[in-house]
Predict the structure.
Amino acid sequence: MPDRPGTSLGDAVEVRVRDNGTGIAPEIRDKLFQPFVTTKPTGEGTGLGLSIAYDIVTQQHSGTIEVDSQLGEFTEFKSAYRVPKKQQPQGRRYGFQRPDRGRRARRG
């Protein structure tokens, strides 16, 4: 899925969440999606949140999730998902039925 401004995502949707906080240090960022990685003190977090999110996005939805961060500037999470094309059912080209379909003409 394209990552450059002005390029098309095609049949995909992208979600970006960015803050203007303190950023994430490179040594943490490199293992951010691994299980049990936490910046909290011992006993105050399992370190499973982003690992589970990564598995859900990549394995269950065939998407991607990435993080970009600059210390003292920002952190941005970007996730992209393919959107499946809907197939039109046979005999219903425009998604509606003709008004006379299923009705019998009355003879009078």
